[in-house]
TrEMBL record:
Residues 458-537 form the Acyl-CoA oxidase/dehydrogenase middle domain. One of its GO terms (molecular function) is flavin adenine dinucleotide binding. Residues 200-315, 561-713 form the Acyl-CoA dehydrogenase/oxidase C-terminal domain. Belongs to the acyl-CoA dehydrogenase family. The keyword Thylakoid does not apply. One of its GO terms (cellular component) is plasma membrane. Its cofactor is FAD. InterPro entries: Acyl-CoA_Oxase/DH_mid-dom, Acyl-CoA_Oxase/DH_mid-dom_sf, AcylCo_DH-like_C, AcylCo_DH/oxidase_C, AcylCoA_DH/ox_N, AcylCoA_DH/ox_N_sf, AcylCoA_DH/oxidase_NM_dom_sf, Mycobact_Acyl-CoA_DH. It holds the Pfam family Acyl-CoA_dh_M. This is Alkylation response protein AidB-like acyl-CoA dehydrogenase. It comes from the Bacteria. Residues 349-451 form the Acyl-CoA dehydrogenase/oxidase N-terminal domain.
Amino acid sequence: MSAGAAPAARAGAAPEALAPEELAELRGTVAGALRAVWERPQTAGEPDAGDARLAAAWQVAVRQGWTELGAAGALDALLAVTAELGRLACPLPLADAHLAAELFAEHDDVVAAIGEGAVRPVVVPAVSGTVRFVDGAGAATHLLLLPEGAGEAVLAPVTGVRPTPGTPVPAWADVDWTADGAVRAPVDAAAAERAQVLLRLALATRAFGAAARAAELALEHASLRHQFGRPIASFQAVSHRCVDGAIDLAAFDALRTEATRLALAGDAGWLLATELAVAHAVEAAPRVQFGAHHTLAATGYFEEHEAPWLFRRVHADVTRVALFVPAAGEPADLLLETGARLPTPYLGEAAEAARAEVRAFLAKSVPPGLTGEDPALVELLADARYLAPGLPVEHGGRGAGAAEQVAIGEELTYAGLAPEARVAAGMLGPTIDRLGTPAQRAQLLPLISRGRMPFYLGYSEPETGSDLAHLRTTAVRDGDDWVVTGQKMWGTGAHLAEWTWLAARTDPAAQAHAGITVFCFPTGLPGWSLQQHRSLAGGVSCTTFFDEVRVPDSARIGETNQGWRVLTEALAHERIVIASGTAALLRLFEDLVDALRADPDRAGPRGSAARATLTSLAVRLQAARALVATSARDALGDGGSVATAPMAKIVGSELEEEFGEAVLRLLGPAAALADGPNAGSPETFETALRYSIMSVVAGGTNDIQRNLVARALGLPR
């Protein structure tokens, strides 16, 4: 097997992945089966009984068949069990047993003994003499000494265990071993690296399992604990801290799921995907744990509470990750030295087929030199039904689902061939198709599907930016018309728009979300005027004024006073369009990697600050892309959490700001120039930096997005 190859089942075939509901059931079984023997390692003030309880946990694992997961190559099942072990703060080394069964697959007696619990191995780096920092040694029978590269794996009996008290509980130990009776197996460089990477992933998964449980306890506490007459979760500082923890957890879950999928499929991208998940865990799991402790405050500081044991587990596991260093290095090393690219998160069979199709179309049918706003490109995309893929076929679309639309949008955006007309097609088109009248569909959908409906959003107002529920622009019924009076701000492209998509209050007595109606009508009607404002990024947005503008009732979208339904429908579709933004950031990131490859002095050697920065950017970008993939399944009510879309927006947009700053540090002053290192790309580094602020603010500021996530987590207002 070549270097970087993914693990497979013992028989050589890739094992079949378990369905999400099967993994959830397995995790529930783990919690139920272990609760009787392992809740917390000890009670405060009592001697450390962790090793005895760990030995009992081994017996439970044998009875449940968890020690046979390695022989089956069931990586997804193993990680599901491992995550639950983290929630219990239990260092049962099932991943070690998994790797031992894989490395000694030719020794049937060893594999059988592992499955029966007669051999209970702990993986350690290959050293001569005493091995330090061994976790769970008190219940182990053998050490599995793993070479750094090609060599021998040695399964050696344990002869002495000396606990070393400290943060971990059960305590780490110094362990002696003997070569007498040891079993040896040849290991090539690829197998050694694979074992190291999988062990790192297991440790990261267990750490995040512990952090997830701590965050869960903090959420519960924040909702129940009252201070100053209110639940503490109603204070934004507390709720946003909980939200940031939830985002880190969701990002790791998405990264780990993608790495596991690639590993089970035997995809060469599994190594980079796995190391991205591990790098995220090492930085974020302690951050989540500390955040949970800050919310729990004194309640979670004493060892009668679960939180201290979870704290111990998080820090023990993320620290031990560094003991197993793969030859390929950190993600930056893989990107700079091997030509690797960030793997594309999987959106499903139909979406990936659409992705392949649009890539072939762009390569074959789009002449060189066309830009995203070229009318010829708009016509090409409209003819191929890529401009409005979410619309039904009879209205010029493809009838594509949310995931397919995201895949198509990502490819167009990455290529720099995504015209502004896609916004109307992706946001207004499906909304009008679902909630508009037959006459509106007949009039507007052909325009939208052909890219001939330039519009601007009439949402934000001077006193109501993200707070649309309290907008003040009014529309008063007068016969067959509505008379619109008010002011809208930050209407991007309003100076070129031919249509207004306007939200107005039609019932002044109604509270908050009620009493709002949405209209779609041409610009330039009597009483409509605008004032242009040039943004930091160079674009134009406008303040538009409505001085008793008469709008026919035929322009009303949906029922009177039911505009909030229209707004939320449009927002769900807008998120599909926004999701494509990570593809633009991916293109910029690849430009950065190419620039560093071309200038090794700036990239520096392994372990340099520049490479650490590149790894951090890669991790956060991949987290955003993975959350987008998750939100694509959730965006239109297809299941999952409504929180994933705002989570993806928060991670991606805040990364844009960090990315712009990092490029200046990595590439120097040239990156601040229009003809800088990636001149000629669809978007230059300096343009992206100037636009990054708007990414955080647009579509509802990230403070508002965090509030949306908080509501989805069940936190009080």
